């Protein structure tokens, strides 16, 4: 039979039978902290890929953008996400859509891991990192700057 296995049983700690826990990206390729990925479904008969990302407490993904859309469902924990110029608190079962060419990043809260499913096109472009000028423009929004600098308490009004 071609394609993905029909069934992969869930294991403890947000792991699945026969699914490797992989590095998020190559070290030094882009800024990120304490995050891993698992490719849950990558079947040649589908036009999409389903992945699970998990970051340790205080971890974060890379600030980047792509040509493709992302569909995200938070499965575990709490944190914040940046989509464009908006920062939102996220928690279990929340859904996030990231439009094409939109800057985005996820950050786990200080006290717990953040895990989410992410669906993307099976054939997709590589991520783009912001240039110095683009990053300076992104930092003009004080709420976004607080998010990018990891000043989460400011985002929650604490």
This entry's quaternary arrangement is: single chain
Please write the string of helix (H) and strand (E) elements. EEEEEEEEEHHH
The end-to-end span amounts to 54 Å
- Radius of gyration, CA atoms, in whole angstroms: 16 Å
Number of helices: 3
Low-confidence stretches: none
The level 1 CATH classification is Mainly Beta
Give an overview of the whole structure:
It is a single chain. By secondary structure, this protein is mainly beta. It has one domain: Jelly Rolls (Sandwich), CATH 2.60.120. Helix content is 11%, strand content 38%. The chain has a six-stranded antiparallel β-sheet with strand order 1-2-3-9-4-7, with no helix packed on it. It has a three-stranded antiparallel β-sheet with strand order 6-5-8. The longest helix has 7 residues, at 132-138. The N and C termini lie far apart (54 Å).
């Amino acid at each position: 039979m071609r394609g993905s296995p029909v069934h992969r049983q869930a294991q403890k700690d947000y792991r699945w039978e026969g699914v490797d826990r992989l590095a998020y990206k190559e070290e030094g390729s882009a800024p990120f902290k304490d995050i891993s990925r698992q490719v849950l479904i990558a079947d040649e008969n589908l036009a999409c890929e389903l992945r699970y990302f998990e970051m340790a407490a205080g971890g974060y993904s890379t600030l980047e953008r792509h040509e493709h859309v992302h569909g995200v469902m938070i499965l575990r924990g709490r944190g914040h996400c940046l989509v464009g110029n908006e920062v939102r608190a996220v928690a279990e079962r929340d859904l996030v859509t990231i439009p094409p060419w939109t800057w985005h990043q996820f950050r786990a809260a200080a006290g717990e891991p953040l895990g989410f499913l992410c669906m993307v096109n099976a054939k997709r472009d590589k991520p783009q990192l912001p240039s110095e000028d683009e990053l300076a423009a992104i930092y003009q929004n004080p709420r976004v700057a607080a998010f990018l600098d990891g000043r989460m308490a400011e985002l929650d009004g604490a």
